[in-house]
Structure formats: structure tokens, C-alpha cells
Amino acid sequence: MFGFKIMREKADLVTTTKRIRGFTEANALYAADHNGKYVPVYAFNEDGQGAVQWHYNRVYLEALIGDKEDLGNAEPFEGIDGLPEQVLDPVVIRAKKKYWSRISASFGYNRENLTGGGWGQANAAASRSVLSVVHPSETCAFITATDWQAKQSGSVLWESAPMEGKTDDGKVAYRHKGKAVVAYYDGHVGLCSIDNMKEINRNGGINHVFWGGPLRSTQRPRR
User: Fold this and answer.
1) The dihedral of CA 154, 155, 161, 164: what is its sign?
2) Half-sphere exposure of residue 106, counting CA atoms within 13 Å on the CB side?
3) pTM score
4) Residues 138-157: tens digit of each pLDDT
5) How is the chain split into domains, by residue range?
6) How far apart are CA 135 and CA 63, in angstroms?
7) Quick one: which of 175, 180, 114 has its CA closest to 143?
8) N or C: which end of the chain has fewer CB within 10 A?
């Protein structure tokens, strides 16, 4: 039984690594078709209404899944629960906690240090561009989380509340043997422990290059 647990943990990590890498690949495709701008974390229309979060952006989801039919006719905020499970974290799928079938219970998009994204402002779109990511091999794009937007303020909440289920606090999820799986903007995937994250917080916090800021430290999450 113990051997089976180890094998499943390894398989979960391999699967999640492959799936989160797919998110960065889809983001690169999106940027290529949108003048070098990655999918916005959220965007508003010309009236400052109808916020569309990245995981409900149909153009991005089509790049991720590769099949429009899998998206059905769901509109933003209808949940889009029909997404194929092969884009989700297998640990979350097995847990079957709150909103487990949504991307936002498996992976979060780095929402720190963005440009042009005033909440509720007309035509506001909080996003990054290819040119704005100065250190793509060190800046987090996507990370295992329990919220659609991964925040520095939620970077170590897992330590006191290591629970699955969709949240609204930007919580990073260290669900893979005590580590979060991180997809960086250059496309590579690495692991980040809570100790790694605490080091990042001590060396710049929200202004650290990990979150898209200008500050760097000597210790980085391992690949």
C-alpha cells in the first residue's frame, strides 16, 4: 500500500507538470495572436462591466484544449464545468471538494505587478506582455493553487490551512509532497516549497522577480 502511494504521488506530479506546462504553451499561442500580450488575468468591456477572468476566456481555452466543441455554449460565469478533466490537477480531481471541476481550483495565474487593470474600469485588462517579463525563467506564470489568481498575500496560507476546495484568497497549494508546481514564463516547470516561498517573501515579497517585480534573491525554487 505504501509503495502504491509513492507511485501515485509520482504519477500525480508528472501529470500536473505536463498539464501546467500546457497552460504556458497556450499563453504563448495567445500572445502570438494578440500583439505580444498574454491572456489578461481579467478584462472588462467598454462599460466597465462583464469582467472575464482568464480561465473563462474562450480564446485562451480554445488554445489550451484545442477543441471548441469541448467548451460547449457556456458563457462567462456559467462555470464552464464541462472542461475535460485532462487539464486539471489529478489530486484536486480525487479530492472532489468545492468547485473541483473548475480550472480555478487547480491552478492560479500570477496576478501581481500587472499593468492596465483597474477593477471595474472601462476596457481595463490586467495583463503582461512578452516584453514586460524581463526574467521569464524566474517569473511565475501559473502555479498550483485554490484560486484563479495566485497572490503573494496567499503564498503561505497553505501552511495553516492545507485544504482543497476553491477559495477566494489567492492561496498557493503545496499539494504535491509539500511543494507547489510552478510554470514559468519561459515554459519550464519547477517545484516550490513553503520554505522557498518564505525566502522569496524575505527577499522582496510582492516585488520579488518571482512575482514579476524587480528584486531578486540568491535562492530560487529548484527545477
Assistant:
1) positive
2) 27
3) 0.89
4) 999 999 999 999 999 999 99
5) 2-211
6) 24
7) 180
8) N
